[in-house]
């Protein structure tokens, strides 16, 4: 087991609570909250007695209660900041306890896992506002995770078993234009700026052959993924898809997600009546930066898209990266996104169907907040309720490992995993 320098980790956390000027972000929480917070942060070397732990937990509970009162995008900064800082104060107490019981390996490991769950959950839910909070939290999580389970080499781990049988794949009647050699950069830029709109491209030309995720640090290696992130907390979607009334999102240890959904499916032992689970559209690489070392942003994401009817503005950040990881059968219902998208298929195969934005009326979008999602269930379309859908033209493909799909802005797309699947989308 890798040695864990608890003293150094505590020192890094202590440094976050030395600047009194940062209290301004917490001011809107109220005087009583500020008083308790200041009192606790001033005695951060004594965070292991029962009364102090109860007070820190009270701040965490208060912050979580306040977060539930608002749509996430409208949560006041003060409550997100309180959740992050109170969680880091509790993490200091856990590090103290770990330091006191280093001779008891079982208890130290239990405390380490509790620390990861605490800080990871705060990181995901709060967004880690405050100076250096994200960087220090990520360093802390990485050190504790590495200490808990050193990463095996690619040769040592268990690998997913993936089918190569093509006889059961869906038939493709209306194929997407396929390129078998890498397109010229300027040609690609010209293509995505075509008027009135660009068309999708199926790129079967080795654009991922240099990715460690596809080669030397393969994401088919379950033990490699567990070594990097087995104890990390990730948001998992539970349910057939996000339009299902029973759909929910759950914070879950990566190891539990892999064991309960990925490996059981691999062993054909999926629990009866267990709903599918999907780690979907999550910024996994911002959350677990070590995984980002296994991929690279395609050069094509740095072309210059021109504004159009379908692409009104670029993403708020450089290139937005999302991870999609789940068992066979997971579905993203027919929907559209506002940006250019390169979808990279790292593990497994997916069936993808696309409709032009010119067909939007025939796809019957929802009203309100879900206006980017069709009401039509592609797996069982109700043509009595949605008659125009039957005549809407589309294109389709099977996206295999090592392949990419260019999806233009506002093109409607339906995605179904044909195997255990790991994909990365790049919005630009």
UniProtKB/TrEMBL annotation:
Protein name listed in UniProt: JmjC domain-containing protein
Ranges that cross the membrane: none
Protein localization: Nucleus
InterPro entries, per database record: Cupin_8, JmjC_dom
JmjC domain mapped to chain residues: 277-428
Organism: Absidia repens
Cofactor dependency: Fe(2+)
Source species taxonomy: Eukaryota, Fungi, Fungi incertae sedis, Mucoromycota, Mucoromycotina
Protein's UniProt keywords contain Nucleotide-binding: no
Database matches in Pfam families: Cupin_8 (PF13621)
